[in-house]
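Board notes (copied after class):
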Amino acid sequence: MGYGIILAAGKGTRMKSRLPKVLHKLGGKYMVQYVLQAVESVGIKESIVVVGNEARMVQDALGEGYLYALQEEQLGTGHAVMTALPNIKDEEGHVLVVCGDTPLIKGVTLQKLWNYHLKTKSACSVLSALLPDPTGYGRIVRKEDDTLLKIVEHKDALAEELALNEINTGIYCFDLKVLREFIHDIKPENAQGEYYLTDMVSLLGAQGLVVNAFIADDFEETQGINNRSQLSLADKNLRMRKISSLMEEGVTIIDPDATYIDQDVIIGQDTVLEPGTFLRGKTVIGSDCIIGPDTDITDSVIGNGCKVNRAVMVEAQVGDLCNIGPFAYLRPGAELGNQVKVGDFVEIKKSRIGDQSKIPHLSYVGDAQVGGKVNIGCGTITCNYDGKKKFQTIIEEGVFIGSNSNLVAPVKLGEGAYVGAGSTITKEVLAGDLAIARGRQVNFAGWAIKKRNDWENEQE
């Protein structure tokens, strides 16, 4: 049986934030979620998240899918593991220990460490890495047979140890039975008065047990995040991984450096992303679309063959062959059928727009049900709010609404009805009817000429 222990109790002082470090986001997900995902990919079904600083906030963010161990005082990595162990009921098995601030770690790397640990039957296996400049890192010191002798911190290292360029990444595999037996033998005999998990290496070696180090292929993915600069660099790394993956799957991305895509976004083949595109959350985009430039889409679903230009969409659903923008805003609950046109400066909220309908420009449609082949003229709005409640507008198939019309909800426009431009509609329009609701036009002959003459006389 395999278990994961995720160390997520630290405050992250250098982040200068009220948030716990592990809850800072990269690519639309919490930092610690990437670690949990990598651990789960190894086949580990149960993970214990060690929480401390703002523990409730971390638990609420991650949900009920994990066990939690509260480390009330942060007394080092060894102490964190001691805190987690009571949550593991099995006596035998293996434990993968990973820091919650290493979002770049790949599941394939953890799998290699796990397989190596099992193959070598080690009591402990440490993930190490090779650095051109290892300054500041704990060094891996090996025995003549290449097994691990100890991990020595930079400040405590001798000259010959400082020359070593293999470092400890802070990721470990342990035999569960061995870990239980010896973890409490760690002593806080250091300037910080903390229990260091690194001390387990020499402790287990002194018992004649096998301790090994496995070298990661890429040091970069093992790096922890300690400040905002590192957070930004890690975010870019994850973004480029996602972009590369999408391009391999047949998505065209014109300028990867100017395109921002969260990790859970799905995009179909032959879709083109123009610069300035932000795709966030769990957005899904079909095939053969053109998205952007300068478009921001969050948690929305877009069908095939759509064009979205300089638009903002949040929790919206769009069918196939739709044309959106420029400068359109689809708010939560907006649902477009197929072949819908939503043009410039159009806002849609909590409304269903039927197939082949058009809202070309300068309109607001909120809390409405719009049928197919409807034309909503420029400047039309649904007046859905009376200051206390929201009301619905129903526009049936084939309705034509003239420019600058106000539809005062609740109101219904029947199939095939016409609304004259400039009308304020407050009552139901029956199918096939023409509704005109505006003041009668009156022309005053010569009034404009007389007014100008009066102005000229005043100036003299």
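Comment from the instructor: DSSP finds nine helices and 39 strands in the chain. The CA atoms of residues 132 and 430 lie 79 Å apart.
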